[in-house]
Amino acid sequence: MLLRPRQETFVDRSLSALRERGNTLAVAPTGAGKTVMLSAVARDFGRSKRVLVLQHRDELVEQNRRTFHQVAGASATSGVVNAHGKDWRKPVTFAMVQTLGRDANLAAMPGLDLVIVDEAHHAAAATYRRIIDCAQEVNDKVAIYGVTATPNRGDKKGLSAVFDNVADQISVGELIASGALVRPRTFVVDLGVREDLARVRRSTSDFDMSEVAKIMDHQIHNDKIVEEWRKLAGGRQTVIFCSTVEHAEHVAATFRDAGVAAATVDGEMAEGERKKRLQAFDRGEFQVIANVAVLVEGWDCQAVSCVVLLRPSSFASTMIQMIGRGLRRLDPERYPGRPPKSDCIIIDFGTSILTHGSIEQSINLDPQIGEPKKKECPGCGATIPMSSRECAICGYVFLIEAPEGDGEAAAKEDLKDFVLTEIDLFKASPFRWEELFDGVVLAATAFEAWAIALPYPTGDQWHAIGGARDGERWKPCHYLAAGDKMLCLAAADDWMRENGDKGAAGKAKRWLHEPASEGQLKHLGLTPISGMGITKYKAACHLTWKFNEQAIRQKVMDAARSVAS
Question: Containing H/E element for 546?
Answer without folding.
Answer: helix 536-564
